[in-house]
Design a protein that fits this description.
This protein has helices at 3-16, 31-48, 52-59, 62-69, 75-84, and strands at 91-99, 102-109, 114-123, 126-133. The protein is α+β, with helices and mostly antiparallel strands. It has a 4-stranded antiparallel β-sheet with strand order 1-2-3-4. The mean pLDDT is 82.
């Protein structure tokens, strides 16, 4: 079911696209947990800048980029579409759990503080997004 993660990614980027950068949630964490929170912040900042290339090459895991590239457009095209409809929302990491080379971040979105779980995998020494549960 390739469409579910793509829809979740599009919604997440649209919601994160125009919000102000949130650094206070990163400051709550240390060590590897902080690295995961910074990956969420990187996604938000790249969405604000509408930097599809950075999102596809530095923030998303290879597996997710491959799924996006397999669609009608490339990863960059899909990300461009997602951030074009951006609303004003913030992402705030409220919890991080790490199990080996995988991590989960519970993220609050916007003023309503709707929660989602973002998943990450360790690739090339960095945490890269593998999914965005909504």
């Amino acid at each position: 079911m390739r469409l579910a993660p793509l829809i979740a990614l599009a919604v997440t980027l649209a919601l994160a696209g125009c919000g102000a950068a949130t650094t206070d949630s990163v400051d709550q964490f240390t060590g590897p947990e902080r690295d995961v929170a910074e990956a969420v912040e990187d996604l938000q900042e790249a969405g604000q800048r509408r930097d599809a290339e950075r999102i596809c090459t530095e923030i998303l895991a290879r597996s997710l980029v491959t799924q996006l590239d397999a669609g009608a457009q490339s990863c960059g095209g899909e990300i461009d579409k997602a951030v074009d409809d951006a609303d004003e929302f913030d992402l705030k990491v409220v919890d991080v759990t790490i199990a080996g080379a995988e991590a989960r971040a519970v993220v609050e979105r916007g003023d309503a503080k709707e929660r989602s779980t973002f998943t990450f995998a360790r690739e090339g020494g960095r945490w890269k997004a593998t999914g965005f549960g909504l």
